[in-house]
Design goal:
The chain is an all-alpha fold. The chain has one domain: Alpha/alpha barrel (Glycosyltransferase). The chain has 13 helices and no strands. It has helices at residues 2-10, 18-32, 36-63, 65-72, 82-99, 102-129, 136-139, 146-161, 169-199, 213-230, 242-273, 285-305, 312-342.
């Protein structure tokens, strides 16, 4: 058991907290769409996953510090550390929305905010100061957008905590500022990814699950904007910004919607046209999370804008997201079973 724990910690994928992100957002979507038993079950599952991943992360930091430091400056693997921030905040949002645990959510918000500062500035300093850097083709992928996801996850969690009464004005200011920072990070990184997709040779094997975060990052930006619009009558700082927030939020939702057919087309190209075999890998949770996030974003966007005609979309998409989560979970359990038998 001890050797298995050490092996798992040594090889831990930095982005594995995307498992917590995916489970949390699908649980939230189930709660919003009236599937409470599933939402409650996923709360239990998510706390187990969160505790397990933190255990492995702490062991890795204590026993395999060199590998951890190397990952932190690796252009491919380092963005995965942002999933720790996003996973913490999505778990907090899940507990507030599903269980009404605002106290616990507040604790996780402060913890997530602290992690955001540590990971954000450590990552960008490390990859900037690195002497030898990869080419754009080798260094960039959709995982870089988790920087934007983690920022907007902080915004969403605070938005679901303070629904009836406004937080202190300095907190309101900080949350709005982080919404803008999250938008900046998406708009700064996505052109590099789009250039890599369209102008740099791209083999079918290069299309990995993290590219789905192209959609997930802008979907959570749309969700964050929708939550702020819904708080507009409660938070004084938001009232003069509401026209801007409505326009920007519409932009985010529309862009997220645009990405979905394109990503499905690339999946068909890889797995149907090129007949590549689909295998479980830790990064697959980076594909499950955006499906759940778009479902939740569309639900809240429809209510924030007062449309009402988008309701059928989340009613259907929740089953797509749940199916993807179930398949990924099956792959994970199968992997764990194989590792257990091998040892």
């Amino acid at each position: 058991m001890r050797d298995r724990l050490l092996d798992g910690a040594a090889t831990l994928f930095p982005g594995y907290f995307a498992l917590v992100m995916a489970t949390g957002v699908i649980s939230i979507a189930c709660q919003l769409l009236g599937m409470r038993p599933v939402a409650l079950l996923l709360v239990v599952v998510n706390w187990f996953c969160y505790a397990s991943l933190w255990t492995l992360t702490i062991v890795r930091a204590l026993r395999f510090r060199t590998r951890l430091v190397e990952d932190m400056s690796d252009h491919q693997r380092a963005p995965g550390f942002f999933t720790i921030v996003a996973g913490t905040c999505v778990l907090g949002t899940q507990n507030v929305v599903v269980l009404g645990a605002t106290g616990l959510g507040t604790v996780l918000w402060w913890f997530g905010l602290g992690l955001w500062f540590v990971v954000m500035y450590t990552f960008f300093t490390a990859v900037t100061a690195r002497r030898r850097k990869p080419s754009l083709a080798r260094g960039i992928n959709g995982a870089w957008l988790i920087a934007a996801v983690s920022t907007q996850a902080v915004v969403v969690l605070r938005g679901v905590i303070d629904t009836g009464a406004p937080p202190p004005i300095i907190v309101q200011f900080q949350v709005v500022a982080m919404f803008m920072i999250g938008a900046m990070l998406y708009l700064a990184i996505i052109p590099l990814i789009f250039y890599r997709l369209t102008f740099v040779p791209f083999a079918h094997g290069d299309f990995s699950p993290p590219y789905w975060i192209n959609m997930g990052a802008v979907a959570i930006s749309g969700l964050a904007g929708s939550i702020l619009i819904l708080r507009g009558q409660v938070w004084p700082i938001l009232e003069p910004l509401l026209p801007f927030l409505r326009g920007f939020t519409f932009f985010f939702w529309a862009v997220a919607s645009w990405w979905i057919p394109f990503l499905f087309a690339l999946m068909s190209w890889r797995y149907i046209w090129k007949r590549d075999r689909f295998r479980y890998e830790p990064a697959v949770w980076g594909m499950v999370f955006p499906l759940g996030m778009y479902t939740t974003c569309t639900y809240q966007f429809d209510r924030a804008m007062g449309y009402g005609f988008l309701d059928p979309l989340p009613d259907v998409l929740i089953y797509v997201a749940l199916s993807a989560w179930a398949l990924a979970t099956f792959g994970l359990l199968r992997r764990l079973w194989a590792v257990g038998n091998a040892t």
